[in-house]
């Protein structure tokens, strides 16, 4: 959890006035050493942190925004950050970027750090591990501007910017089916993420449309989102050890797609001879793979721009905002050679 104890909470617990607690925390000479010691020890015990929202209001705007992503090296997020910066800097805002590396604990620490630096708002793409979104709900209810992008928290009523993940997954899977493949696997990230669920739904809908049975053993979750090669290699081995092993795979993530290619190569397999591939990736080198990769590409730069525009409008609004929107941008299916027409058996 982020900061939750307030000066009022400490004052109530210790039977002191809020002004006494405030002065004790600030080291005022007006407060006796015993009272200071009592307050500081209790504050440390409950992990008290100054309210960043109150501090920001007190000190006016910092003209900076915080960004929370899983990994800057991820092609999608590097392009989204370019979009974020293109709007932010032209609007007079600095950008502070943090990486979660798919860790919920690191995400919480990053957000706390950004708040301590008095950012005016947050652009957040959740880590694969994150399940507790109540801290964001707390900040949002206090009027702190937050916009989610890509990996969103659907329960929080604030602005969100996403790709049409369901449609992108549906089109990718249907392409494999139309190319003659029927034994199609699906490699995806943590089920905690709405994008994982949306892409799985698109995958299963395409199978259903073409009357192909859904096989649960063909679906593999990599909870670290492709950041750990061994996790992806384990999924590949599980898929290929099945008696009726899959002949094609739809991969639902940028990092997962590129890590899968590395895993297949390391295990001595070839694309598309051993398995045809369609993946979600914004990597600019996808066409340089051997063979060039058929991909679903997301409008990452535009998603970053749109999210930043919405955040700055929220920050600069003179009145409280009660109506929020979810912007959904279309994906693009780019055909290359990693999923060719299946030759007759």
UniProtKB/TrEMBL annotation:
GO molecular function, one term: DNA-binding transcription factor activity
Keyword Hydrolase: no
Gene3D superfamilies for the chain: 3.40.50.2300, lambda repressor-like DNA-binding domains
Domain HTH lacI-type residue range list: 5-59
InterPro entries: HTH_LacI, LacI/GalR-like_sensor, Lambda_DNA-bd_dom_sf, Peripla_BP_I
Residue ranges crossing the lipid bilayer per the database entry: none
Keyword annotations: DNA-binding, Transcription, Transcription regulation
Annotated SMART domains: HTH_LACI
Matches recorded under PANTHER family: HTH-TYPE TRANSCRIPTIONAL REGULATOR GALS, LACI-RELATED TRANSCRIPTIONAL REPRESSOR
Stated name of the protein: LacI family transcriptional regulator
């Amino acid at each position: 959890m982020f900061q939750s104890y307030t000066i009022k909470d400490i004052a109530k617990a210790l039977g002191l006035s809020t002004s006494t607690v405030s002065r004790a925390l600030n080291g005022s000479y007006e407060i006796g050493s015993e009272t200071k010691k009592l307050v500081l020890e209790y504050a440390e015990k409950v992990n008290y942190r100054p309210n960043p929202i109150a501090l920001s209001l007190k000190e006016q705007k910092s003209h900076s925004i915080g960004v929370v992503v899983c990994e800057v090296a991820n092609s999608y997020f590097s392009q989204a950050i370019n979009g974020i910066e293109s709007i932010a800097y032209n609007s007079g805002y600095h950008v502070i970027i943090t990486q979660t590396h798919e860790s919920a604990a690191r995400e919480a620490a990053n957000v706390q750090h950004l708040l301590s630096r008095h950012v005016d708002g947050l652009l957040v793409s959740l880590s694969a591990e994150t399940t507790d979104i109540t801290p964001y709900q707390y900040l949002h209810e206090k009027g702190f501007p937050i916009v989610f992008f890509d990996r969103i928290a659907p329960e929080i009523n604030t602005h969100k910017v996403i790709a049409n993940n369901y449609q992108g997954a549906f089109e990718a899977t249907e392409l494999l089916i139309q190319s003659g493949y029927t034994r199609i696997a699906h490699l995806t990230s943590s089920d905690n993420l709405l994008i994982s669920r949306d892409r799985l739904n698109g995958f299963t809908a395409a199978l259903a449309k073409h009357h192909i049975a859904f096989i649960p053993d063909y679906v593999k979750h990599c909870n670290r989102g492709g950041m750990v090669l061994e996790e992806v290699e384990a999924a590949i081995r599980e898929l290929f050890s099945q008696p009726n092993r899959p002949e094609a795979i739809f991969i639902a993530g940028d990092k997962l797609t590129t890590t899968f290619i590395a895993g297949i190569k390391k295990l001595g397999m070839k694309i598309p001879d051993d398995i045809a591939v369609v993946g979600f990736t914004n990597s600019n080198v996808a066409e340089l793979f051997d063979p060039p990769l058929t991909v679903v590409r997301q409008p990452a730069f535009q998603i970053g721009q749109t999210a930043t525009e919405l955040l700055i409008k929220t920050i600069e609004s003179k009145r409280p905002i009660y109506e929020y929107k979810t912007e959904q941008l279309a994906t693009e299916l780019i055909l290359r050679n990693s999923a060719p027409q299946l030759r007759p058996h």
